[in-house]
Amino acid sequence: MRHAVAHTENVENNSFTVTDLLKICTHCERLSKKDLGVRIPRPLGNGPSRFIPEKEILQVSKVDARTQSIFEDAFAALGRLDNISMVMGFHPQYLEGFLRTQHYLLQMDGPLSLHYRHYIGIMAAARHQCSYLVNLHVNDFLQVGGDPKWLNGLDGAPQKLQHLGELNKILAHRPWLLTKEHIEHLLKAEEHSWSLAELIHAVVLLTHYHSLASFTFGCGISPEIHCDGGHTFRPPSLSQYCVCDIANGNGHAYHHDDLLGNQEVSGEVEVLMEKMKQLQECRDEEEASQEEMATRFEREKTESMLVVTAEDEECVPSRDVSRHFEDPSYGYKDFSRRGEHVPTFRVQDYSWEDHGFSLVNRLYPDVGQMLDEKFQMAYNLTYNTMASHKDVDTSMLRRAIWNYIHCMFGIRYDDYDYGEINQLLDRSFKIYIKTMVCIPEKTTKRMYESFWRQFQHSEKVHVNLLLMEARMQAELLYALRAITRYMT
Asked: Rounded to whole angstroms, what are the CA distances from 20 to 1, 49, 78, 205?
């Protein structure tokens, strides 16, 4: 199986499907081998995600014309349709803005050269050992003329990029430690200094790829077929079985793991909906004092530090990934185990809407607007459904998820009652959220399956979009506040 290239006339007539874009039958492989004498790789995994059945992902494009159109445009522009886009295809409204923003950051006019942009993407993804993103951008880095020597390790890259390593490290794991002195170090490094515009571009790229690494692990994104770990040259083990049958729905039936637990969690959705209803009634009856609201925030922030994320075994990064960053022992877990205190960041003092947005737009025109639209889309996206229930207002639940992530980063909204979080987010969900946001490389399929077991995969992908964007905004707030303090 190999990547297919569609004919131009097919693109114009919108006459092909996602399956046509991605797969060529094993019969075609045999012809290629016979005629050309070349070895054709075969994908190791079943589809774009290890967590979500391939058939369910591919079905989206067959029933949603908008999703198919977005996929076709992405394929025409990039020559590929990556697995991240395939999974995000559950939510075409979001995917469209995501691809537009990412394309602008990587391809359009901006302060940084193209090879710098991809190298920063490599640095950011490597901090979370995300070989999927590292491999994609290694290829892109070389295609835009990047120096292969830089890929031998960060010490082979220019001093200017090496200096960015400290910012990359702090933003990825403990952004609350970022100060204006870190910014000053980058802007006043003599011949290796960054301009303010360049730094804003770099910060947006770093936060974009830190959060995208979270999404990649959170949704179990499989390696691309052309990257390490994504293919094999061994023939299929089952005779007379065409791997295209999976995409065409003719293969072995998928077994949805969630079905095993449905009886155990019967009523899970109804219980959550009832809690939302009760909380709304409490809101209408009385409002907690500011002192009580502050106390509840501090309690939730402290409890979030104590949430156990994953097994304690060490994740030792491979040389291929770790060479792109320094100090691999630095991470979120060190802070939590020492019991260090995360200072409170009041959104009323520095917010994205009132401060960060304008700073980004001023130094990197149009990007602030694109980011704002992407944040708003993820936060407000709703189909008014919960599992099989329709006409449900999910705004309370979406806000609890967003604010819980910001709470883990010490960010507080004065007008939010953090007592709602414990009512709406159970322990298994909190474990998944914290792991996916803080130590994404430790996210497992078991964690993915253990929360919201009655919900659809599309709803879990929606959760991952919320987590990704909330994390990106949290990192951006700390970085932009430090830059603002330096400027004033």
From this structure: 12, 19, 16, 32
